[in-house]
Amino acid sequence: MELRFTDAERAFREEVRAFLAAECPEATRRHMIAGKSPTKQMVVEWQRKLNAKGWATPEWPVEHGGPGWTPAQKYIFREELQMWPAPQPLAFNVNMCGPVIIEFGTEAQKKRFLPRMANLDDWWCQGFSEPGAGSDLAGLKCRAVREGDHYVVNGQKTWTTLAQHADWIFLLVRTDPNAKKQEGISFLLVDMRSPGITVRPIITIEGGHEVNEVFFDDVRVPVENLVGEENKGWDCAKFLLGNERFGQARVGASRERIRRLKTIARETLDGGRPLIEDPEFRRQITEMEVELKALEMTVMRVIANETKRAGTGKPDPATSVLKIKGTEIQQGVAELLMKAAGPYAWVDGDPDAEGSNEWDVAPDWAFGLAGVYFNWRKQSIYGGSNEIQRNIMAKAFLGL
Question: Which residues are catalytic?
Answer without folding.
Answer: 244
